[in-house]
Amino acid sequence: MGSPVLPKALAFDVFGTVVDWRTSIARESAVFLAEIGMGERDPAAFADAWRAQYIAAMQGMKASGRDFVPLDILHREMLENTLRDWGADVATLDAAMLADWNHAWHRLDPWPDAVEGLTRLKARFPVVTLSNGNVALLLDMARAAGLPWDAILGAEVSGFYKPDRRAYLRTAELLAIAPHDLCLVAAHHGDLAAARATGLQCAYVDRPQEYGGAPAPDAHHEQAWEWRADSIIELADRLGC
């Protein structure tokens, strides 16, 4: 089988694919847990517990018919739920402190290969986000981490959270290209499977440390994607950048 036709644009999942959410959230949570008297608790476990609510939140949005809200709001709800699960009395916690803790998602560190890889890819392809993050979150993250996006797109722009097919199709529409001319780059097989079902090309970037070395929860969705790489730099090599 020959090589796939090159896409006209690359749309990136961000959390886990471009930035290392677990290490970043654990580092900041260690500080906040100490501030509320829970400094003996494992901050990496807290990061995992906070993130674990993410899929349930996405499913809950769809099942309940709840109107679209930015991810910052859902992250805050998930933070408070996690704290309650860990035995904290959320009602007694300082509101400004909780807001700053929630804002940790705006300050995530990039994977070491991300900025160089994106910069190389950007020289040949438009590079945009196709993330469930809201615009303010992704803009803050990009400025802090030096991520060279051409545009910040995704759920808040389309009005739909992935894996809703409209999130993928609306991104292609906004770029004025056919779905098959857009390639989703992601470290998550479930995200890629949903994108492929809408006609997008798919590039998988392996991030074995996203969950601290634990198996990815969506590994069962793995398919033979158009491209596969161990870093965004390697993806740039494979795409001739």
From TrEMBL:
<dbReference type="Pfam" id="PF00702">
    <property type="entry name" value="Hydrolase"/>
</dbReference>
<protein>
    <recommendedName>
        <fullName>(S)-2-haloacid dehalogenase</fullName>
        <ecNumber>3.8.1.2</ecNumber>
    </recommendedName>
</protein>
<dbReference type="InterPro" id="IPR006439">
    <property type="entry name" value="HAD-SF_hydro_IA"/>
</dbReference>
<dbReference type="InterPro" id="IPR051540">
    <property type="entry name" value="S-2-haloacid_dehalogenase"/>
</dbReference>
<dbReference type="InterPro" id="IPR036412">
    <property type="entry name" value="HAD-like_sf"/>
</dbReference>
<dbReference type="InterPro" id="IPR023198">
    <property type="entry name" value="PGP-like_dom2"/>
</dbReference>
<comment type="function">
    <text>Catalyzes the hydrolytic dehalogenation of small (S)-2-haloalkanoic acids to yield the corresponding (R)-2-hydroxyalkanoic acids.</text>
</comment>
<dbReference type="InterPro" id="IPR023214">
    <property type="entry name" value="HAD_sf"/>
</dbReference>
<keyword id="KW-0378">Hydrolase</keyword>
<dbReference type="InterPro" id="IPR006328">
    <property type="entry name" value="2-HAD"/>
</dbReference>
<dbReference type="GO" id="GO:0018784">
    <property type="term" value="F:(S)-2-haloacid dehalogenase activity"/>
</dbReference>
<comment type="similarity">
    <text>Belongs to the HAD-like hydrolase superfamily. S-2-haloalkanoic acid dehalogenase family.</text>
</comment>
